[in-house]
Amino acid sequence: DAADTYDVALLESTAARWRRQRDAVRAIGARVPAIAELDAISAQLARLADVIDAGLAGKLDESHSALVAQAREPAGELLIAAVPVLDEWLLA
Protein backbone atom coordinates (compact mmCIF):
# COMPACT_ATOMS: atom_id res chain seq x y z
CA ASP A 1 0.00 0.00 0.00
CA ALA A 2 0.98 3.67 -0.11
CA ALA A 3 2.29 3.73 3.47
CA ASP A 4 4.61 0.79 2.75
CA THR A 5 5.87 2.47 -0.42
CA TYR A 6 6.49 5.69 1.50
CA ASP A 7 8.30 3.83 4.30
CA VAL A 8 10.54 1.98 1.83
CA ALA A 9 11.41 5.22 0.04
CA LEU A 10 12.15 6.90 3.38
CA LEU A 11 14.43 4.05 4.45
CA GLU A 12 16.24 4.08 1.10
CA SER A 13 16.81 7.83 1.28
CA THR A 14 17.98 7.55 4.88
CA ALA A 15 20.53 4.88 3.96
CA ALA A 16 21.78 7.05 1.10
CA ARG A 17 22.08 10.11 3.40
CA TRP A 18 24.07 8.11 5.94
CA ARG A 19 26.52 7.09 3.23
CA ARG A 20 26.83 10.66 1.93
CA GLN A 21 27.38 11.83 5.51
CA ARG A 22 30.24 9.37 5.91
CA ASP A 23 31.80 10.60 2.67
CA ALA A 24 31.42 14.25 3.71
CA VAL A 25 32.89 13.61 7.16
CA ARG A 26 35.90 11.92 5.60
CA ALA A 27 36.41 14.66 3.02
CA ILE A 28 36.03 17.55 5.46
CA GLY A 29 37.72 15.64 8.26
CA ALA A 30 40.86 15.45 6.13
CA ARG A 31 41.10 19.23 6.58
CA VAL A 32 39.33 19.80 9.92
CA PRO A 33 40.45 17.50 12.75
CA ALA A 34 37.33 18.18 14.83
CA ILE A 35 35.14 16.86 12.02
CA ALA A 36 37.42 13.84 11.65
CA GLU A 37 36.34 12.88 15.17
CA LEU A 38 32.93 12.07 13.71
CA ASP A 39 34.34 9.43 11.35
CA ALA A 40 33.64 6.47 13.63
CA ILE A 41 30.02 7.53 14.12
CA SER A 42 29.41 8.18 10.43
CA ALA A 43 31.08 4.88 9.51
CA GLN A 44 28.72 3.07 11.89
CA LEU A 45 25.73 4.73 10.24
CA ALA A 46 27.02 3.73 6.80
CA ARG A 47 27.27 0.11 7.98
CA LEU A 48 23.71 0.35 9.28
CA ALA A 49 22.71 1.61 5.83
CA ASP A 50 23.94 -1.73 4.52
CA VAL A 51 21.62 -3.44 7.02
CA ILE A 52 18.69 -1.35 5.77
CA ASP A 53 19.47 -2.28 2.16
CA ALA A 54 19.72 -5.96 3.03
CA GLY A 55 16.48 -5.83 4.98
CA LEU A 56 14.62 -4.17 2.13
CA ALA A 57 16.01 -6.79 -0.26
CA GLY A 58 14.99 -9.60 2.11
CA LYS A 59 18.60 -10.72 2.43
CA LEU A 60 19.37 -10.21 6.12
CA ASP A 61 21.78 -12.68 7.63
CA GLU A 62 23.87 -13.13 10.76
CA SER A 63 26.45 -10.60 9.57
CA HIS A 64 23.76 -7.91 9.61
CA SER A 65 22.73 -8.86 13.13
CA ALA A 66 26.39 -8.55 14.12
CA LEU A 67 26.58 -5.06 12.56
CA VAL A 68 23.54 -3.93 14.54
CA ALA A 69 24.97 -5.35 17.77
CA GLN A 70 28.32 -3.70 17.07
CA ALA A 71 26.67 -0.35 16.40
CA ARG A 72 24.67 -0.56 19.61
CA GLU A 73 27.64 -1.08 21.92
CA PRO A 74 30.00 1.87 21.36
CA ALA A 75 27.53 4.64 20.51
CA GLY A 76 27.87 6.34 23.89
CA GLU A 77 31.64 6.08 23.85
CA LEU A 78 31.83 7.52 20.34
CA LEU A 79 29.74 10.51 21.33
CA ILE A 80 31.68 11.03 24.55
CA ALA A 81 34.89 11.20 22.51
CA ALA A 82 33.58 13.45 19.73
CA VAL A 83 31.55 16.04 21.64
CA PRO A 84 34.38 17.70 23.61
CA VAL A 85 36.50 18.07 20.46
CA LEU A 86 33.59 19.58 18.55
CA ASP A 87 32.76 21.85 21.46
CA GLU A 88 36.35 23.11 21.57
CA TRP A 89 36.33 23.68 17.80
CA LEU A 90 33.06 25.63 17.91
CA LEU A 91 34.27 27.81 20.76
CA ALA A 92 37.62 28.55 19.10
How would you describe this protein?
This protein is mainly α and 92 residues long. The chain is 86% helix and 0% strand. The protein contains 5 helices and no strands. Helix 1 runs antiparallel to helix 3 and helix 3 packs antiparallel against helix 4. The longest helix has 28 residues. The radius of gyration is 15 Å and the shape is elongated. The model has no long low-confidence stretch (mean pLDDT 87).
Gist?
The protein is mostly helical and 92 residues long. It contains five helices and no strands.
Jot down its keywords.
92 residues; mainly alpha; 86% helix
What fraction of residues sit in β-strands? Answer: under 5%
User: Radius of gyration, Cα only, in angstroms?
Assistant: 15 Å
The secondary structure category is mainly alpha
The string of secondary-structure elements, in order, is HHHHH
Largest sheet: none
| Helical content band | over 70%
* Tally of individual helices: 5
Question: Distance N terminus to C terminus?
Answer: 51 Å
Mean pLDDT reading: 87
The number of distinct β-strands equals 0
Q: Describe the global form.
A: elongated
What oligomeric state best describes the polypeptide chains here?
single chain
Low-confidence stretches: none
